[in-house]
Design the sequence.
């Protein structure tokens, strides 16, 4: 069965600093991978996705992520964090077939210091 | 833009009451999902549907039930609410070709 691990529960960075959020997945074949962001009391917004092709994907709000098959990872990065980036970030994996169930990691809460 | 709507946004209800959480999408998506999320915690898939008259239980056992009579509508029902049902419930939908899921804003349920 597929699963997603986000090893960092909380991360605190200073505004303007770079950011990397870790995500590892477990799945036998090439999965579909996603990063979502959730602001307090809100639903989830898609930041970016990987289905195939170029392993470095660009998303909204200046985020990018890199798929590394050898490490089963899909880490999210941003070169310069803004205070408005403070939120909960979820990595998710879906099977690349018709059964498509989206499974989420436990999330990483990002705090931004002024 | 996502066109998926959940009502109500907030609900406080007494133990033993029957409730239905509404979820509708206007994107014509085949697949719809219900997730349960406790505050600050991960999302757990409790129900999903691949189309009309198709419903399946998710990875987390839930006492709720769902129905899919129309493509655009995927309501979730609790026959007898209990305090353990207090949580946030998120509805999502996705298109035929395994594109990303779009989420509603959630219903925060409190059972007292």
Sequence:
């Amino acid at each position: 069965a597929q699963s997603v691990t986000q090893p960092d529960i909380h991360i605190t960075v200073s505004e303007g600093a770079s950011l990397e959020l870790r995500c590892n997945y477990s799945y036998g074949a090439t999965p579909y991978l996603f990063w979502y962001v959730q602001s307090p009391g809100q639903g989830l917004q898609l930041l970016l996705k990987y289905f195939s092709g170029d392993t470095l994907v660009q998303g909204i709000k200046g985020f990018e992520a890199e798929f590394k098959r050898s490490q089963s990872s899909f880490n999210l990065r941003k070169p310069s964090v803004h205070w408005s980036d403070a939120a909960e970030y979820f990595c998710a994996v879906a099977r690349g077939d018709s059964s498509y169930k989206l499974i989420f990691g436990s999330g990483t809460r990002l705090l931004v210091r002024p | 833009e996502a066109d998926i709507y959940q009502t109500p946004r907030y609900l406080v209800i007494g133990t033993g009451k029957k409730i239905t959480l509404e979820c509708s999408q206007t994107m014509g998506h085949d697949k719809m999902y219900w997730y349960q999320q406790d505050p600050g915690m991960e999302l757990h898939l409790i129900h999903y549907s691949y189309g009309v008259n198709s419903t399946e239980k998710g990875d987390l056992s839930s006492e709720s039930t769902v129905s899919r009579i129309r493509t655009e509508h995927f309501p979730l029902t609790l026959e007898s609410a209990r305090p353990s049902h207090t949580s946030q419930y998120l509805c999502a939908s996705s298109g035929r070709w395994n594109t990303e899921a779009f989420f509603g804003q959630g219903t925060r349920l409190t059972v007292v």
